[in-house]
Amino acid sequence: MAQAFFGGVHPNDMKAATNEKAIEQLAPPAEVVIPMSMHFGAPCSPLVKVGDQVKVGQKIGEFRGLGAPIHASVSGKVKAVEPRPFSMGGKMMSVVIENDFQDTISEEVVAPADPDALTVEEMVEIVKNAGIVGMGGATFPTHVKISGGIGKVEYVLINGAECEPYITADTLTMTDRADDIFEGIQLLEKYLGVKKVIIGIEDNKPQAIKAMQELSKKDSAIVVKPMPAAYPQGGEKVLIYNTTGKTVPEGKLPLDVGCIVMNVTTLACIAEYVRTGMPLVEKCLTVDGSAVATPKNVIAPIGTSMKDVFDFCGGFKEEPRKVMYGGPMMGIAVPTLEEPILKNTNAILAFNDKDATLPDETPCIRCGNCINHCPLSLNPPAIAKALASGDGAEIAKTKVNICMECGACVFVCPAHRMIVHRNKLAKAELRAYQTKLAEQKKKEEENK
Fold this sequence. Notes:
Elements: E1 24-25, E2 31-35, E3 45-46, E4 53-54, E5 59-62, E6 70-71, E7 76-85, E8 91-99, H1 120-129, H2 142-149, E9 155-159, H3 169-176, H4 178-192, E10 197-202, H5 206-218, E11 222-227, H6 236-244, E12 259-263, H7 264-276, E13 282-288, E14 296-301, H8 306-312, E15 322-325, E16 332-333, E17 347-351, H9 353-356, H10 369-373, H11 380-389, H12 392-397, H13 408-412, H14 419-446
Parallel strand pairs: 1-14, 9-10, 9-12, 10-11, 13-17
Antiparallel strand pairs: 2-8, 3-5, 4-7, 5-6, 7-8, 13-14, 15-16, 15-17
Helix pairs in contact: 1-2, 3-5, 4-7, 11-14
């Protein structure tokens, strides 16, 4: 069995400020802004209009095709249905709810009468109605992942690695909500028909490992796999290799090697919905960084502004230079504290001037560090050269399409090159090139 993966890095984990603090519940804010896109797939269409009264758990956004529904996280009046600034840039249609502080639960919130009597199809429908998506960051609709895995899965892999610095929300979920995780595992075992569930956790989380090992005593199908603390240990393909020894080929999915990967918090949410009928309306996240007064793990209603969450943590001890969704390796910087908490927000970090100031980029010195530490064995200098040439065919040869943008290359680069930035640009160029080829092929076939 593989014990480590090629490449990777060992940043300081920076988790000490929050990894032993109990999760705290944030009081519902005066207003929430809920974007209609918090999943992989097309945005939802709003089901409410300005002036409508909504209740907690009420469906306010419906999807078509690939996606997941969106629900109100507070009760109150719809103040606006309009485009608002979005985490991925630009604006996204959003539902703005003015909280009435009554916490009125929607009539739609109904738990299954007998969860043990559910058919596979009913279980998939339940997960879909809950609006649950991958909460490790990818936001892939969970009901699609489960339905696609029926009859095809050999291993269910539970991702508890949480390898990125600062973030401890999943770690606290494993220690504080172990029973929910266990119930989620039992449901997956039953409906996917699997006989082996592997929980992968980095070995720098002894309390989480202990909590999950207690679950394995109750179910022989559960195996807890402590893994060396190395980033990006929690990457899907990396996790699969480290826990099963299987390699997911280029262009293939985990299902193609008999695996399905679930985040620990995603599992806990499935169990909670089956027990209570309450869809995904709140998120546990880590609040940390050198500018934050009191780092915490917080449960916040989805749509809560970053400002309200930071205020709950005592505000800032000094003016932040940079605020981010997610961790320092893969996170996204935001332009305003009005950005809302989303379904996949596992952390918000605020850094002071010293920590947020990046060194100046200098010319590549051909040291090969980026190549040696890439977990997917990519060649960033070759990607940069192909990008500069503007040749789509050359870009395709570099396999930049499989880059997971983990940032390990940037972390080890002595020249402080903006490698991930260039890889993203190369991906965009590659997509444009592939689209052009497809259009040309279509015209040729039409002209035959």
